[in-house]
UniProtKB/TrEMBL annotation:
InterPro entries: AA_transpt_TM. Residues 21-363 form the Amino acid transporter transmembrane domain. GO terms for biological process: amino acid transport. The chain crosses the membrane at residues 53-78, 90-107, 140-156, 168-191, 251-271, 291-309, 335-358. This is Amino acid transporter transmembrane domain-containing protein. It comes from Dipteronia dyeriana. Residues 1-21 are annotated as: Disordered. It holds the Pfam family Aa_trans.
Length: 379
């Protein structure tokens, strides 16, 4: 019995007593930042091309509705069983007990780390693309830009919690809209420059090839919605937390409809079955939009990176800063935070910079981000 109660420590009591300060708008910024990323929805036109109009559109709409509803279900568990469950780990513990806590904790840590490995490579790749646009013969490599991005994330990691990221994530959300608007506009522009009679919307290849592409496309759609870290975000929201979180999640999904759906439909309309797996690769003119889209992508995923590393930071803080007397010395706390955030960022950066071939694995690593929450929702 003592083992099953161990994870439910004074952390929940302290957090409940202090209460959240964020509004539903702040919650919507956090949720949109973690879900509506360029890396998630830029491949969706290719997924639609692999499924065709009917199955593709119905899968996209169905995926949006199912994940929106499941997000509201998880949100509704705030205050369930008499406690405000401030993380997925604590929520799983209240339902499944000791092993539920540690199972979800394991999946969340693996998923968050996998996402951040992929995010940092994607950010470095986008920064390198912008650099090469202006300095075609420049000597800086992908590793340099991975390190630059890691240094920036170390700076953001000194912000104490998710609520302190609210304006960072507000900027990221607007950059998401900016990326989508730019890409949609240029996609339509490119589409109008193409002879429309040459565009083919039929599915090509053998039966086995079509089947493989269809399942791959369904996987891309299913996992493009990612993991919004809902309990962690809800812990930052003021009362009534449920009502505010309902509004925040719904507002974030409105952004998803404006970005995911529109880019998906426009990309497939413009290029048909010839659309590239990453929509930016299909765009040829004007060249300056390529730079703008990559810069928007870097800004957006910088906030996403922060959301995904917060469960790891929180895990260390629960244990290292568990002594109340230690909390009284802010310098000591800041030094400890700088130490473990530096170790985390250094490890992720080292993995990315030492093994640049992981760039190829980004589409495979990113979907792992929603694994633990998907399993939890199914259970």
């Amino acid at each position: 019995m003592l083992l099953s109660e161990e994870p439910e420590t004074e952390e929940i009591k302290s957090s409940t007593a202090n209460g959240g300060k964020g509004t539903w708008k702040h919650a919507s910024f956090h949720v949109a930042t973690t879900i509506a990323t360029p890396a998630a929805y830029a491949p969706l036109p290719f997924a639609l091309a692999s499924l065709g109009w009917v199955l593709g559109v119905s899968s996209l709409v169905g995926g949006t509705l199912v994940t929106w509803y499941s997000s509201l279900l998880i949100t509704s568990l705030w205050g369930w069983n008499g406690n405000n469950h401030i993380t997925y780990r604590h929520l799983a513990h209240s339902i499944f007990g000791f092993w539920g806590y540690w199972s979800i904790a394991f999946f969340q840590q693996v998923a968050s780390l996998g996402n951040n490995v992929a995010i940092q490579i994607a950010a470095g790749t986008s920064l390198k693309a912008v650099y090469k646009y202006y300095y075609r013969d420049g000597s800086l490599t992908l590793q340099h830009f991975i390190i630059f991005f890691g240094a920036f994330e170390l700076f953001l990691s000194q912000l104490p919690n998710i609520h302190s990221l609210r304006w960072v994530n507000a900027l990221c959300t607007f950059r998401t809209i900016g990326f989508a608007a730019t890409t949609i506009g240029v996609t339509i522009y490119n589409g109008n420059k193409i002879d429309r009679s040459s565009i083919d919307y039929s599915l090509h290849g053998s039966s086995s090839s079509k089947t493989f592409k269809a399942f791959n496309a369904l996987g891309s759609i299913a996992f493009s919605f990612g993991d919004a870290m809902l309990p962690e975000i809800q812990n930052t929201v003021r009362e009534p937390a449920k009502k505010n979180m309902y509004k925040g999640v719904s507002a974030a999904y409105s952004v998803i409809v404006l970005t995911y759906w529109q880019l998906d439909f426009c990309g497939y309309w413009a290029f048909g079955s010839e659309v590239q797996p990453y929509i930016l690769a299909s765009l040829t003119i004007p060249k300056w939009t390529f730079v703008m889209a990559n810069l928007f992508a870097v800004i957006q995923i910088s906030g996403c990176y922060q959301i995904y590393c917060r469960p790891t930071y929180a895990y260390f803080e629960e244990r290292i800063l568990s002594n109340k007397s230690a909390r009284q010395f802010s310098f000591r706390n800041h030094f400890i935070r700088l130490t473990f955030t530096s170790v985390y960022i250094a490890l992720v950066t080292l993995v990315d910079a030492a093994m640049p071939f992981l760039e190829i694995l980004c589409p495979s690593v990113v979907p792992s981000g929603s694994l633990h929450s998907t399993l939890f929702s199914l259970l």
